[in-house]
Amino acid sequence: MRLRANAKINLSLKILGKRPDGYHEIDSIMQSVSLCDYITLAPLESGIQLTTNNLRLTTDNRNLAYEAAEVFFSAKGQDFDELSRVGARVKGIKIYLEKNIPLAAGLAGGSTDAAAVLYGLNQLSAVGDRLSAFELQKLGAEIGSDVPFCLTGGNCTVTGRGEFVKSNPINVKRDFVLVVPEVEVSTKWAYEAWDSKQATGNRQLATQNDLEAVVIEKYPVIQKIKDRLIELGCSYAQMSGSGPSVFGIVNLNETGNTVYAQMKNEYPRTFLVRSADRGVEEG
Questions:
Q1: Is there a contact between 37 and 98 (Cβ–Cβ < 8 Å)?
Q2: Where along the chain do its domains lie?
Q3: 146 belongs to the catalytic site
Q4: C-alpha span between 152 and 280 (Å, rounded)
Q5: Residue 209 gets which letter from DSSP?
Q6: Where is the active site (predicted)?
Q7: Taking burial as the number of CB atoms within 10 A of a residue's CB, which of 9, 15, 169, 186 is the most buried?
Q8: Active-site residue, from 37, 113, 146, 210
Q9: Would the annotation count 75 as a binding residue?
Q10: Mean pLDDT, each 10-residue run in order, the chain (283 residues)
């Protein structure tokens, strides 16, 4: 089974405060886009094997795709060597991850891989033993805050720490020029930096992404990219998630191609992407 694991961008990200469990309460509009990783799944006699084309990625349970398989099998009462609810079709799993989504870019690259593994394992299970969409989302929330959205995909309002996902009835296709500068941003650091600003009363100018100001303060290249996208003809530009990726909205295909070509020349990790209706797609 081969699956497309689509990246996400945050069209908006509002942080409502820090929760007692250490996570942050958010209110975000997320959108799946066509930039994707590919996940190939094949049944094994037992165990989990993960290989990837990206040498920077671990291939054990520090990788969210591997962890997703562990969580799925554990939820099904399976210890990899014994059959349980899953039936005879899946005892273990071989995962090949073709990585195309840049790492640490605010695009949910690890989370969408995990979502694809959960979805795929569920599809490989015996029909009568498949988990519901709600059950899969609960498993996803155990792995990472963005995994529930990635299991649903499309355009959604996401609240809580990410576990509550509501699809929005938006069918308009949009094109984006997505630019990822050659820096990596830790999501943990970005939220801690935001917390620090709130604690000192040094609040930043409000934007559609509450993390944007604190991240730009450390990585000014993000503001430079935003300004350049607007200069070239994008109707709007914003950092996605905890960054450093920046998307610009293009209204016409001609504009998108022109902006893409120019930004690609200046920033090699530039992509022309389109909104996607699902987080995980077969084929």
A1: yes
A2: 2-168, 175-274
A3: yes
A4: 8
A5: B
A6: 8, 146
A7: 9
A8: 146
A9: no
A10: 98 94 94 98 93 97 97 71 44 94 96 98 88 94 97 97 93 92 94 87 66 96 98 96 96 88 98 97 91
Which tokens go with 37? 């990783």
- The DSSP bridge pattern shows strands 92-98 and 48-52 to be parallel
Residue 45 to residues 82, 196, 242, 270, Cα–Cα distance (Å) = 10, 50, 40, 41
CATH architecture observed for domain 175-274? 2-Layer Sandwich (3.30)
User: Residue 60: its pLDDT value, please?
Assistant: 96
Phi, psi of 111, deg, nearest 5: -65, -40
Active site residue 224: no
Could you please state the CATH topology (level 3) that the domain comprising 2-168 is classified under.
Ribosomal Protein S5; domain 2 (3.30.230)
pLDDT of residue 183: 95
Q: 106 among the known binding-site residues? A: yes
Residue 109 assigned to a binding site: yes
